[in-house]
Amino acid sequence: xxxxxxxxxxxxxxxxxxxxxxxxxxxxxxxxxxxxxxxxxxxxxxxxxxxxxxxxxxxxxxxxxxxxxxxxxxxxxxxxxxxxxxxxxxxxxxxxxxxxxxxxxxxxxxxxxxxxxxxxxxxxxxxxxxxxxxxxxxxxxxxxxxxxxxxxxxxxxxxxxxxxxxxxxxxxxxxxxxxxxxxxxxxxxxxxxxxxxxxxxxxxxxxxxxxxxxxxxxxxxxxxxxxxxxxxxxxxxxxxxxxxxxxxxxxxxxxxxxxxxxxxxxxxxxxxxxxxxxxxxxxxxxxxxxxxxxxxxxxxxxxxxxxxxxxxxxxxxxxxxxxxxxxxxxxxxxxxxxxxxxxxxxxxxxxxxxxxxxxxxxxxxxxxxxxxxxxxxxxxxxxxxxxxxxxxxxxxxxxxxxxxxx
Length: 406
Ligand code: PLP
Description:
Elements: H1 7-13, E1 25-29, E2 32-35, E3 40-43, H2 46-49, H3 58-68, H4 81-93, E4 98-102, H5 105-124, E5 130-134, H6 143-148, E6 165-168, H7 173-177, E7 184-189, E8 192-193, E9 199-200, H8 203-215, E10 219-223, H9 237-241, E11 247-250, E12 261-265, H10 267-270, H11 286-299, H12 302-326, E13 329-335, E14 338-343, H13 351-361, E15 363-364, E16 366-367, E17 372-375, H14 383-405
Parallel strand pairs: 3-15, 5-6, 5-7, 7-10, 10-11
Antiparallel strand pairs: 1-2, 2-3, 4-12, 8-9, 11-12, 13-14, 14-17, 16-17
The chain binds pyridoxal-5'-phosphate.
The site of pyridoxal-5'-phosphate (PLP) has 15 residues, from α5.
């Protein structure tokens, strides 16, 4: 017999880094979840852009359980078939020649930043160690990645921080150009700032960063942890922008809910990370490899990418209609199924209220900062689920509006 547990236990037993919702999900199918009381929720949060194929996808279950009967883990003294197949899929589908596997987005970015420092040190010496990142960026929670991230609230309490990281203004090429020079080893940027408010890069901004990196022999790192694996309607957002990075990081949706991360790069750069220079016990584990391989097989198809564009239209049209009725958003932005509704002045800073009201009505949405409501649902969410979820979301919005007036 398992003992009974509840949301209140979280506050007793778990390190209080999170403030989870008041309900505890216990099972899910497609884009619907149920909590301990049997209440249903339509999932527009997608586990923070992770559950790209929804919940309990039968093919992913099969890939995971088949692998679970064969081989779980060996450590990196041995390679394994699933991870080799996944590596080949990623290489065939992208600019990359080589892949480093790890377990999360932060670790993929950590590897990318370490690679950039190592390449620069090997080729030019230790003075070439500058990293240029952007205000409001989010790259993970290790000390290096939180320092590259552009939200001091997440890093300041952990000083001293790794040095030689500077932040420019996102979408402002002149501000980046002022910081990038021959001592710069890397520029790290999200093609769409996800946590920072669902802010897409201007195409000219990314093209300009590419040119500056070429001019100063710095690596251009695209953090596609949130935008990758079909989220934008392209397998990776760099394909939409037509700007190819030297290093790309991917995680989240790559495992469809199973933890995995990867850093993709070119042959000449990969050479810098020779045997023993970097690693992680679970990176490229057979279970993650098997699931990741199936995710890539299912998502990297023209009909799935076209489906993302179609679902984008469903969301944006319905959100515009809601906005016509309730006057909440000053902007609805994003690409594919990474969509942000920017709250107007009347509701500025109140995104969390909408998130909580949504949960009460039976729909899960995300926030991105205090004033943006974010949607990152499954890439194969059904029309019925979208309709039902948005009807619930509108009821939640009305509840907030009425609460604000009372
Ligand atoms: N990079 C970006 C763009 C992200 O959105 C995130 C997570 O939200 C990360 C990195 C960190 O990924 P993880 O939480 O898997 O370490």
